[in-house]
């Protein structure tokens, strides 16, 4: 069925009431006509409402916003908004006051007398306006501001006039004077004519912004009233004036009068109001408190009554929009308080004021319309807003900060403000947050200020003992509640272990919560014989020159990328910080021969099952659990390497097979290992990137010879060092060849000794904060210490001491004393495994009760932790026996020049002086002044020392270059023992710190302890007769252990299973066997690398296409040969070639040609249009093509062209390449980052 809606089928009739109805003739359907009539009627009603609203807005622009009298009600000095209309040649600016009514007039020409300026402005042409404006009462305003009153300086005035002429935007100015002008004609008699002068010279920094915001808010409120009046049926005239009188002018007036009349009373009621706000004892007191705290109407706003009154009106409309059930009188009482109740609104709420108003407007309907319109317009005012206040607090004990957070959260907020929450931002910065409506902003701000004051009082008046006691009471209360809840459930039994008694109640309660929420507790309860499964038993350092593959070896063995710092990611994987990864070495449970039976896996997650055997794919079991410490290879980061070396039990020295031997940092790192006492059983030399010697079409024979020659250079280089006689394995971290042999070597290493006797000594290598921004401060986690346990054992709940802790300095910055930090171990972690106790071995993390502000960003790195009374002394001055490293040991160029002819480069230890026999025995360089090229120290010289994991600087007080002795005054305090070995760095001219040698601590002057007896300046001596001439020499009892290497030399039984050395030949005689195995693996698994297939790129075919263009006819074929998308090559030509714009051509549809997804046949037809007139174009294009192949096709390691370019965008040649483009070789598996085009 069809409905005929043509005009011929419709007939309009009028009923008795005069309303218009429409009937339609349809084929059997009569309801469609009624629906159409209703739709038409609704549209007519909406059109009428829109027309009335437009009339209201047009008429409302001539009405004032604040007072019926307009500008006459304003006081002198009021900040008003001025809208410029015209600017005269002499700099007079004429315009209107949009806040006080007035339409831009149609042309009063200005009169005589006082209106001379207005006449000039009215007759001025080219400015698009006049000076006179008419008000709704028939009056006329002439508003102006002179050039000299627009700024404080001439330049400021000149710039301001230029801005006004360019934009004609409204600006704020101060009302200076209002003068009544005489009439110029009969028509002007009876109409007021005012001349208003403004000034901008005395405006404050925020006056303009506040005036503009107030104007915008007032316009929005006026729009609400105008729209409500239109809804209530008002007309543009008297009805709108009445509506504004009731809902704007009277409200402003009453609010202003109430504030002025109660200014004196506010001083008397301030205390009562504050008390009522804080306690909330009674409603009346609360109302008085809100009056001062919420609405901002207290004595602090004295002198700003008008602004406060305006804010009250804004709050009134917002409250009216929120309160759907409350009467208008109740809303006014809520906003204004009992002192300013806005009683003028009684006429509106009680419907008894219409007799006195010259209008028939329904006031009740108007009031409801205002409520509805306010709710529609002021949506943002109805949403709660979060208000924040920053707190900065630091304390040695994290319990004090937790107690502070609980105390703040227990404070009672004022009405309308939510309870405070204290969250973590970044310790020591925390944040107190409350939620409130926007009209309660001042109440929320005042409450946040109270919270900050309370926090300041707690930290200033109460000491740590008081805070700790209060925190302990809260913990006890929480424990009691938890125990009562557990007893209420018959299925759960309370933990009644004896370990929870005494002073460990707090730690036991926190531990129980953690165990209940941790699924890994079963792993903790395993037998202690399986310690190697839970905790790493060795720390293996990866050392060597930059880009020799240290991180790649670690990633292959552990499956973890050690570059986690944001700075390292920005540098595309370059190691800047110390990297950490745990690794488990597994062996086949069957009969597979070594080294095929070995396989590695990550050691962080204890829930992972062991991987299958590479040979038989059978089950495997863990034979060794180690921690890797990935060190940076840059020269400027030698300090970072020294910090990590303090925790080494063994080391992997990486030497790239495609680079010369020795690389500078390879030599420096090896010298450090030698000076630290490592031997060939603790070091393994990895000939990494060995596959690169076979690439480039060299063949197996040539590659094997090159590999053997490179190995011979390594053996010659490591002579008389810690790596002499160490295993030398040719490996490929990318292909994985011979990496199982490396796993076998790791399995042969004995575990670190458990350390018999003495207290626990923990070397802090790193410290960090595990709290995240937004975490609740009430459950703040303490700082975490990462490092290696060198001696003894530690258990959860033990009390440990950190030395030196906090250092006190005098006004000149000199060290006065130190104060150790005493804390409790909350949790012990190894990867993702929580341990109840820990023994000397791999890297672990200790969560403590230390303020995380102290541990974040490696704040406690370099300190020594352990049980109180077992830690080494803290020195502020030390005496060193120096051993300088030779140029050969440091890998410097010209080590064999004539300047070093006095010393043999292969055995520099022969040139050491008599006082350095111990250093010479360890493979050190020349001692004291006996070695040429050694630094010549002088008093006041600056040195940088690496004491364990601590890095500090010092000043030479006395020295003897001939004997190699020096007395160093430290800039900080270090904890070390007599006999410890320290790395010494000197600052070369024009360069940074450079490693120069090592020193042995022979004597030292201890630093005073805070709160203890003041120590005399006496020397702590390690042996008799070796003093430096001090007044009194005292001998310190010999310590049980000295350096970290002594733990490795102990003859204690290993705690984990080891392998027999006979199963794998890691001696120097087995080098040839490992090279042959590596070659066999290459031939078996990496045949593509040996074949080295070359790419054949067709030469460019260029054809001129007119005088200004050329075509690359076989561009698509070139891209197919290079296996690169055409868009990328075209973008490179456009960016690097200087040949102008380029575009793809040759295909009807090139939308998919840019990415190369159009098919090989279409790609063969693809062309590149070059918009250029360049000469010798063929040579330039060939040169660009070669450059492109070098950068984006050829592998940087093996020079193979069989590579792929991984990218995320580039569908269009004008879209530039992203920063995550990676060039990956399909032969050697090397990957490098490609630069952005």
Automatic annotation (TrEMBL):
EC code(s) of this entry: 3.6.5.3
Gene Ontology molecular function: GTP binding; GTPase activity; translation initiation factor activity; tRNA binding
Q: Which GO terms describe its cellular component?
A: chloroplast; cytosol
Source domain of life: Eukaryota
Query: Bias category Gly residues: which stretches?
Result: 496-509, 921-932
The main enzyme category here is: hydrolase
* Alphabetical list of SUPFAM superfamilies matching this protein: EF-Tu/eEF-1alpha/eIF2-gamma C-terminal domain, P-loop containing nucleoside triphosphate hydrolases, Translation initiation factor 2 beta, aIF2beta, N-terminal domain, Translation proteins
Instruction: Please give the chief subcellular localization of this protein.
Output: plastid
Q: What PROSITE patterns would the database entry show?
A: G_TR_2
- Catalyzed reaction equations: GTP + H2O = GDP + phosphate + H(+)
* Membrane-spanning intervals of the chain: none
What family does this belong to? Answer: Belongs to the TRAFAC class translation factor GTPase superfamily. Classic translation factor GTPase family. EF-Tu/EF-1A subfamily.
Write the protein's name.
Answer: protein-synthesizing GTPase
Chain intervals with Low complexity compositional bias: 1-10, 1034-1046
Record field: compositional bias (Acidic residues)? 266-275, 899-919, 1023-1033
Q: Where in the cell is it found?
A: Plastid, Chloroplast
Q: Where is this region: Disordered?
A: 1-47, 260-302, 481-525, 892-939, 1022-1070
Record GO biological process: formation of translation preinitiation complex
